[in-house]
Structure formats: C-alpha cells, structure tokens
Task: inverse folding
C-alpha cells in the first residue's frame, strides 16, 4: 500500500509499504487540515504522514461492532474514558488521547487503528452521507467543541476573525445556535462573500476597514497569530469570551494588560481539537442536514496529485482541499 511521507512543503513523497494491524481501514477520502499548513507545526512533526480528516472502509476488524465493508469515520485520537481528566470530561487532556494515534496518518491507502480508538471513536457513516461530508466530520467536530466551550446565547453579539474553512464552520454554527448577530472579519473578499452567502452571517469586514465602534460578547479567533488575538482584544466588550481556535508558534508571546483583562472580566478560552462527543454531534448535524461542510470544498485531487494539492491548499482562494484516495461516493 502507498502512503505519503511529508518532509517539507517542497518535498512530499509517496512511499510503498506493508500494513499490518488488528483493525485496518482503507481510506476513501482525507481532507487537508489548516493546521497541516502551518510551517512551524509541520516542521516540528516532519518527517511524518499528515491527514486526520478521514472516511474509509473497514477491511479488517476483530470486533462484531464493525464488519468488513462498513464505511466509517475514523477519529485520529480517543480518550481512555477512565483517567482523572476523562472523569472531568476534559477528553483532549487525557494521556491516552494524546499518545494514541492512527498509523501512519490519513494520507495513506490503508491505516491501522489502535484498539482504544476503534472502540471509542470510529463511527459508521449512514449511506446517504457522502464521502465528502463524512471526511469533514473531524473539522466540524472541532468547531462544535469550540462553540460548546463558548456556550453561546441569544444575546451574544459575535465576531469571527478569519473566514477560512474553520471560520466559516464556526460562523455557520453560531447562526445555528441562535446568537443575536455574527460579524466576520477576513482580508480576502472571496471568503467574506462565502461567509455572507453560505454561513448567512450578518456583516463582513476587512480588518482594515473596521472602526471598532461596536463591541462583541463572543469572539472566535481563527488565524494562528498574535496579531489576530490582539485584534480580538480590541473588539472585546466587558465580560466577553475570546475563543482561541488555533495555536500560535511556541516561540511567540502575547503581552497582556491584566488590569484591563481583570476589570473588564474578559475570558480567553483555548479550544484544542475535539472528542468522541463532538464527532458524534458532528455526524448528527451532517446526517440531519443541519450543516453540509462539503459545500465548502473548492478543490478535490487524486492521491498522486498530493504535491499540487498541498500547494493549492496554501492559497487563500482555496477554502477546503480534499484528497480522493479510493472513494468518490
Ligand atoms: Zn485538523
Ligand atoms: Zn483519560
């Protein structure tokens, strides 16, 4: 079987290898995650096999719950369900969640799934859900986790900074959760247009043109930069929540005026990845027709075009790029 070995953005190789394991899945489609386009992040992992937005087909299963041929969503991590973090529902802090992973990664013809993951977070996909939507369960689950942490209410005046694929999902979910108003910010007009037309948010701006007269009670920061967080702090109302949706590089620091944060009671809340709870909600939202993340797919490539796919994915005109590895339903 073939899999991708990523060294850097100029050096992506498809390698041939054997694959063994108790639970094996033939990958049908896998999306390129925005996180896999962050230079510092991939540098810290390379050489590695990226890919964690996966739909596939079971080709070997040791448990009755899954039969050969079942079409499944595969999460790349799962919690132990019994440690102190798990008891508190802090699934992504669980050591097992952090340690266990699928092998080698989603950009592979076949992947091996460890026991804890196939027991906790492999989900059968209903026939009427397309491969395109099923492979986007994982990113939608990350959005759902962020929105759940934000705990939105009908009085919230929301700002979404960054209207790439994740910002668009966050925007749409805020509307679904019934907040009062959503305003989106992005430098690129194609993204602002999609936010208006697809996510149906109320207003869109380039960050340059906003006058800061309006303040927000809930702000979601997508871009992984200190500048984006500083922009969020300028938008924040008293008692607002700022959700950090993406990590800044480990060497960067934000200077905070704690006096201002304290007296204005501003909460800064990180939301990292997602859990088996969020993936179930995501699958439910997709299968009930509440949200169709595949609407945002702008490019689809075959596995042998993966070099081109990663190049295209780094262009702001691309919203979502997915790789067809053996699917297409
Ligand atoms: Zn991701
Ligand atoms: Zn645990």
Result:
């Amino acid at each position: 079987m073939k899999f991708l070995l990523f060294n850097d953005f100029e050096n992506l190789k498809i390698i041939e290898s054997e694959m063994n394991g108790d639970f094996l899945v033939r990958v049908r489609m896998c999306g390129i995650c925005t996180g896999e386009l962050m230079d510092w992040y991939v540098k810290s992992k390379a050489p590695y096999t990226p890919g964690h937005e996966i739909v596939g087909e079971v080709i070997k299963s040791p448990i009755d719950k899954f039969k050969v041929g079942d079409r499944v969503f595969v999460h790349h991590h799962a919690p132990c369900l019994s440690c102190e973090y798990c008891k508190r529902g802090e699934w992504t802090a669980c050591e097992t969640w952090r340690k266990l992973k699928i092998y080698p990664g989603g950009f592979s013809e076949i992947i091996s799934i460890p026991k804890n993951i196939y027991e906790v977070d492999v989900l059968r996909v209903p026939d009427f859900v397309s491969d395109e939507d099923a492979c986007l369960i994982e990113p939608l689950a990350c959005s759902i986790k962020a929105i759940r942490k934000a705990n939105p209410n009908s009085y919230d005046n929301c700002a979404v900074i960054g209207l790439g694929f994740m910002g668009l999902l966050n925007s749409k979910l805020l509307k679904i959760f019934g907040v009062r108003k959503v305003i989106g910010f992005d430098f690129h007009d194609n993204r602002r247009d999609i936010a208006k037309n697809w996510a149906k948010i109320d207003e869109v701006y380039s960050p340059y043109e906003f006058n800061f007269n309006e303040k927000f009670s809930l702000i979601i920061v997508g871009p992984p930069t200190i500048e984006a967080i500083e922009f969020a702090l300028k938008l924040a109302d008293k008692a607002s929540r700022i959700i950090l949706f993406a990590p800044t590089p480990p060497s960067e620091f934000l200077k905070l005026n704690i006096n201002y944060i304290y007296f204005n009671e501003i909460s800064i809340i990180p939301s990292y990845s997602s859990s088996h709870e969020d993936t179930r909600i995501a699958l439910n939202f997709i299968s009930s027709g509440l949200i169709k993340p595949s609407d945002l797919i702008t490019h689809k490539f075959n596995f042998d075009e993966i070099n081109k796919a990663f190049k295209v994915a780094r262009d702001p005109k691309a919203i979502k790029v997915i790789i067809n590895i053996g699917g297409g339903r």
User: Anything to note?
Assistant: The first helix runs from residue 39 to 45. The chain has two domains: 2-140+273-324, 142-270. The chain is about 30% helix and 25% strand. Residues 2-140+273-324 form a domain with the Quinone Oxidoreductase; Chain A, domain 1 fold (CATH 3.90.180.10).
